[in-house]
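In this section we walk through a basic example: taking a raw amino acid sequence and producing a predicted 3D structure, encoded as discrete structure tokens. The instruction is simple. Fold the sequence below.
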Amino acid sequence: MTAQVFDGRTCSLGEGPLWHPLRNQLFWFDILDKRLLTLGTNGPISWQFDEYVSAAGWVDEDTLLMASASGLWRLDLATGDRKLVCPLEQNNTVTRSNDGRADPWGGFWIGTMGIQAEPAAGAIYRYYQGTLKRLFSDITISNAICFAPNRSYAYFTDTPTRQVMRVPLDRNGWPTTEPSVFIDLRSDRLNPDGAVVDAQGNLWIAQWGAGRIAGYDVQGRFLRALEMPAIQVTCPAFGGAEYAAMYVTTAADGVAPEVMEHAPMQGMTFKIDAGITGLPEPKVIL
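The resulting token sequence is shown next.
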């Protein structure tokens, strides 16, 4: 159950891994270097952009919905062309997009944050049926957006709070009440980052600075941790045959040079077979 290097390119801030179920292909972002990455049949591929890009959902075999600092975009994977779907804090020069994920109704949740992690500068939105609606405000670092397989709950975190929140959803995927604390990591001084839910409803969350992915059951009870060979673990995603593999992005930004010298895998993207089965990401309906 040792994590293996899936892609050896060093990401300043690897994030947003997405397994495309029609292409059987992993996509992920290096937010600070403004690029989207993947592995093709002939080796590494990347798309370079002129602004921060951070998260995506799949629309069809050749199209992603991609979140950037200025909007949500249709990205043509064959040509690299993009077309604006809707603005996202387009005139706010303080913020950029961060964590995001498609929901089971074909919507897309996307969080924003201050470029310098300015307190309460960000928010969490939902794009659904042609409209972008703000769900939660005063977010510092939006993360851990994911959904229960039975459509009952959405999860998210504002990383500096060290609390993972849970909010019930109605039949159309909208929150019905105020969020409540699902996992409280304050006493352990752990920093929740990106997360995904497995086929059993357990939540697997990256813990920034701790070098691990931690699992919690549907009651929020700790299950086990998957140790990673990088300190700054950012987000997991399920993929591969029968969704039995977990792919994990990491970040090299801010890692001390002496650490990089002795542990040069910081910022690489990993694959681990941990005996956990995930689910395909839902299609985004535009």
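Looking at the output, two observations stand out. Residues 45 and 273 are 24 Å apart (CA to CA). The chain has a mean pLDDT of 97. In the next section we compare this with other chains.
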